[in-house]
TrEMBL record:
Residues 25-36 have a biased composition (Low complexity). Keywords: Hydrolase, Signal. Residues 315-327 have a biased composition (Pro residues). It comes from the Bacteria. This is Amidohydrolase. Belongs to the metallo-dependent hydrolases superfamily. NagA family. One of its GO terms (molecular function) is N-acetylglucosamine-6-phosphate deacetylase activity.
Length: 542
């Protein structure tokens, strides 16, 4: 206990202490853990940038379940079920079985005896929508040939969803396309992967979650476009590689600038948090001292503590953030390629050009996902297999320019035999209608040359391998439970020259029926065919 006189002497001080504490505390931490939390990462701007292929998930519930029974199922996993059933439900492949499946309530049941079911075909190389039909100058949006290096342009911004070629591709069993810029430029820009459903905007067709592609080109086209055509760089293959190398090195410097900025900002934030934590700790310490002295004014340290209370305690001010480097979408695209979030696809014909691009990739730090056209890939098939580079090519089209001179019909088969990843592509709004026949021709050429290729291997040239090249193999490319119901029913063996797609589903919804007249997808064709309904398709729904 202490005397009333002592209490009267200490009372003004005791009354001032709570006021001192309250005036000097602006935002105490909600918990000790919050005060000690590490600084948040300062994001790279391209990490916050949404992919052009963010996609829109379609409401699969609107489509009733579909059960296809008694069909030959080419799973594209290396296995065939000669007499099986497959259930499409909720936009996904719900069941795959040998024998029969009990249909769920309300299901549409198809007896497919004598018919075949495959995954939807995927074309890794298409210019549909950016070089649409009819081919008028007003519709030519595939090459931004104003500069040889344009990584910041995006095909999604030039795609015309009214292109009549889209519906014709679907009639050939194609469900997914990668829309690439053309090959006039060394670095042509971002490619987008689309699901082929009727839509008013290409963003309604985006394949959800598919990474963007980056189109590059080597060889004749860029040097012809700029050197021969304009007397500008590049005019040689030396110039091609030099300008591509410089573009990636400039992008790497941009990334380094951002990394330094992120490091500086993280350190600044960390120091600010340390100062804030020290301030909040001092506030708490004074509160405890004041409380102790109120309980026991004769405590020996009260007089010493009071000296500290007389000093003002102002909350620390946040330090000024440094200036961030300027944004550069072109460099950010190339950084994405080096980091693997943007997949690199390169137009290249000759073996030496492909080897040069692989050397450049190793030098500056990106992975080639697929060489396109690649007519001399068979010459370096061991290298391509070792590097895990896919080859998107034709079955038997070559000889139309000097770098396309040395093609052979066994190219795809030799790649398959070597353990590489061959892909049948089209680069054509006409060829895309018969991709099954292209695979059949490549298969026949390999067999004639003595290679024991199977149908199961060949169907992967159209399905799983291109899905892998586009980074979507976890969702499509095989008939497996849980994958998207992008499925084709063929009226006979798919590699027959007489085969046609009887029905095509995307996300479990019918987008093509051979024997049923449906409204045209493109308003360009309204009234062109008197045998078809003229009702415009509503809001992207078939």
């Amino acid at each position: 206990m202490f005397s009333r006189r002592a209490f009267r002497l200490l009372s003004p001080l005791l009354l001032a202490l709570p006021a001192c504490a309250s005036s000097s505390t602006s935002a105490p931490p909600s918990s000790p853990a919050q005060a000690e939390a590490p600084p948040p990462d300062v994001p790279f701007p391209w990490e916050a940038r949404p992919s052009t292929a963010a996609g829109i998930e379609t409401p699969a519930a609107a489509s009733p379940p579909v059960l296809i029974r008694n069909a030959t199922l080419w799973l594209a996993t290396g296995k065939t079920i000669p007499r099986g059933s497959i259930l499409l439900q909720g936009g996904k492949i719900a069941q795959v079985a040998e024998g029969d499946i009990t249909p769920p309530e309300g299901a549409r049941v198809i007896d497919a005896a004598g018919k075949f079911v495959t995954p939807g075909i995927i074309d890794t190389h298409s210019h549909i929508g950016v070089y649409p039909m009819p081919g008028t100058v007003a519709h030519l949006d595939g090459n931004e040939a104003s500069s040889p290096v344009t990584p910041d342009v995006q095909t999604v911004d030039g795609f015309w969803p009214q292109d009549p070629a889209i519906e014709r591709a679907v009639a050939g069993g194609v469900t997914t396309l990668q829309i690439l810029p053309g090959s006039a430029n060394l670095i042509g820009g971002r490619a987008v992967t689309l699901k082929l459903r009727p839509a008013l905007s290409p963003r309604q067709m985006h394949f959800p979650g598919a990474p963007d592609g980056l189109k590059m080109a080597c060889g004749e086209n860029p040097k012809r476009t700029y050197g021969n055509g304009r007397h500008a760089a590049p005019g040689t293959r030396m110039g091609n590689l030099a300008m591509q190398r410089k573009a990636f090195l400039d992008a790497k410097k941009h990334e380094d600038d951002w990394q330094r900025y992120r490091t500086t900002e993280a350190n600044r934030i960390r120091e600010d948090q340390k100062k804030r934590s020290a301030y909040e700790a001092e506030v708490e310490s004074r509160k405890k001292q004041q409380a102790q002295c109120q309980d026991d004014p004769y405590f020996s340290s009260c007089a010493e503590w009071q000296k500290g209370w007389d000093k003002p305690l102002d909350p620390p001010k946040p330090s000024d953030p440094g200036a961030a480097p300027p944004r550069d979408p072109a460099k950010e695209t190339l950084i994405g390629a080096m980091r693997g979030s943007v997949l690199v696809h390169i137009h290249c014909y000759r073996a030496d050009d492909m080897l040069a691009m692989l050397a450049l990739a190793d030098e500056v730090g990106f992975q080639v996902r697929s060489f396109h056209h690649a007519l001399e890939a068979y010459k370096i098939r061991d290298v391509l297999a070792k590097k895990n580079v896919s080859i998107s090519t034709w079955a038997d089209w070559w000889g139309f320019k000097m770098e396309a001179y040395d093609g052979i019909p066994e190219n795809i088969a030799l790649l398959q035999e070597s353990g590489a990843l061959p892909i049948v592509h089209t680069d054509s709004s006409e060829g895309v209608q018969r991709m099954n026949q292209e695979a059949s021709k490549a298969l026949a050429s390999g067999r004639r040359a003595g290679m024991p290729l199977t149908d199961e291997e060949a169907i992967r040239w159209l399905t799983y391998n291109p899905a892998w090249a586009l980074g979507i193999e976890k969702r499509v490319g095989t008939l497996e439970v849980g994958k998207d119901a992008d499925v084709v029913l063929w009226d006979r063996h798919p590699f027959s020259v007489y085969a046609s797609a009887e029905e095509v589903w995307i996300d479990g919804a019918t987008v093509h029926q051979k024997d049923k007249k449906r409204p045209p997808w493109s308003d360009f064709e309204l009234g062109q065919d008197t045998g078809r309904p003229t009702t415009l398709l509503p809001g992207g729904a078939p």
